[in-house]
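Session log. Operator J.P. requested a structure for one protein chain; no other inputs attached. Running the standard single-chain path with token output.
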Amino acid sequence: MDLKSSLRKYFFLVAFILIIGLVLSTWILYLPNMPVRQPRLAQRKAIIVCGANDFYESETEDEFNGSPDANFVTNTGNWSFIDREMNSFLEWSSFGNETLGSLYIKPIGPGSINASLTLNWTYPLYEYALYNISVSVQINSTIDIVGNGARIGLNWLDSDDKVVRTDWSAYLSRTGNKWRNIKMFGVCNNETNTEIFKLQLVLAFEGDFVGAGPLDSIHYDDILIDRKISVNLTDPTDPNPPPGRINSDGFPAQALQVYWILKGHGYTDENIFLMLYHTGDNIIDIDTNDIYPNDLNRSGVPADIDVENGDVNASRFKRELDVSILGSFASTIRPKDQLIIFMTDHGSNGILPDKNATFHFEANHSYINETEFYDLVKEIECERMLICVDCCFSGNFLNENKNIGQSWYNLPNCILISAASDIPSWYWINNKNPDGFAGSWFFHPFWDHLDKNNTIIAAYNFALGFVPSTWNPIPVVIIQNPLMKDYLGINDTWSFNGIPQL
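Structure written below.
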């Protein structure tokens, strides 16, 4: 190779090295000024859904409640008595609870009693209405009885006077010679596929008075019936619900309470997906004790509602929970995020053949069942989740096999909380009540306590003990039995100012 060719070869090599060096030096020179892509920080997210605002007024059966059939002021009323063991008899006494007079079963001597009193309901009977019955009971005995004790029931009869279903309360086996209250309910529906024509009230006792003394007896007094007009959830338009249906603040107020509390603790509207049905309710006042007369717009700041009124339905809710749908709310959640799901609405356990629970939407009478909900939520990958279901039969809704308290959704990164077990839950339909708030008897005090930076377990226990101002005030834990399952094990540390931060 001659000298000229060699110089040409080395010239190109040197030039290439110089160009690479120039590029590298320029890149290093400007590197500090180039934007650096930071990793996405973990976010706190929430989806809140309120699918209804129709409620049904509570209507006391005043004609019955003030009658001798209910308070036994003067006589035994129209109750019929049967003793299957022939070891007791029925009496009326001036011994009473709040008024003079009570109906009582008296043992003839030691031994078993299997007796019941039955009253044929002669007052109007409304299909799809929920009948609450409350009875004062006192078991007088020198020693504890052996056996089940007292209970109350509702017999639902067909046109041939055949009992097609009986709704029973739990047994009460001792009262300490004091008056105790038994409460239960039944819905006038046709889950047995046999049309209901009649109702009977039943007071029953099963037990053994060992060594019965002259004062041993079972007294009944102050029977109260409270009727709540309900609706055929399978087809709410057939038949038409009886009078009592009203649009009210209860459900949207509960959803807005959660929304504003999350906003007050740093959640952004970008990270809150609010589905709010409030047709006809353009002014929603959660609490008479705060400064906000309309919680749809607090002091000029409107609630950021993502889906409203007619668009709030089961199809849209399922879409937003589906991680596989691009643009859904669930698709924006990342593994290090945390998620709150809050649901408030009507619920039922009378639609599906397996009696599992459903959560309903007023806009188009649609619903999501517990299996559909679980199948969507279990696919959401996040650090931790809090799921609050605020509807009747909500414990059943969070329970895979309807074994309340034993089997729950298998969501290891989650705390599950229900407003009730497999029974109805209750709400103030507006704030025109002594408690002064509209919303859930359980979740309103629960979120109010969380708002004060208390832990989840502290808020849960506080709400369990809340006593609503009703005609028969008792704690919520007795009224509807809320439930909680903590797979995370952090209910005693998780709060708005705790670690981790709610």
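Operator note: The first helix runs from residue 3 to 30.
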